[in-house]
Amino acid sequence: MRVLVAEDERLLADAIAEWLRDDAHAVDLAYDGAAALERVTVNDYDVVVLDRDLPLVHGDEVCREIVRGETAARVLMLTAAAEITDRVDGLGLGADDYLTKPFAFPELAARVHALGRRCRPAAPPRLHRAGITLDPARREVFRDGRYVPLARKEFAVLTELLRAEGAVVSAEQLLEKAWDEHADPFTGAVRLTVLKLRRKLADPPVVETVKGAGYRIP
Asked: Is there a single domain that holds both residue 46 and residue 134?
């Protein structure tokens, strides 16, 4: 998934981003509310992890703008305020979930996964196609019963191709979902990742290139 982490405590923001990247998400960072608003305007996020007490533009206003905007992004609000009234207020702004600090990274990751499922059509716990079984929760892939070890980007690309259920996924779509905002759209990152993925999945070839359109698993 594509995730925005908007948190002004830089060490915490960087730690959250690294944890989510290890979970095969593409993660962008914003250290203040103005930067967060700019990024949600430009990029298509599945989930926004939003600190409520952001500088420049308060997290409450960022949340309102996300809810008002033309986006399917789900908002996980973070705050040090643990009172019930604070949680109620945060959810009342339109946030989809609320997590108080301090929190455990595995719980945050689980909540991001849950929100990501809500912003897309419902998907089964495991994805199956062409002899491939992918388990998003365990980050495991099998091809005809054989375990296939994949790097983070390879796993993310395969997830998008399997979710498409045979439809063509463009290189631009893969770049949007599997890479962060620093990715150069003119590099061959997608092509190279697909090449490595094909090699690891082994014969018979399963990932097709549709000339001028993208990739698919028929």
From this structure: no
Using a cut of 0.70, tell me whether the model's pTM lies above it: no
The residues of the chain scoring below 50 in pLDDT are 122
Tell me, what's the pLDDT at 22? 84
- C-alpha distances out from residue 218 to 101, 165, 174, 179, 212, Å: 45, 8, 17, 24, 17
Residues 186 and 138 in one domain: yes
β 26-30/2-6 pair status: parallel
198 phi and psi angles, rounded to 5 deg:
-60, -45
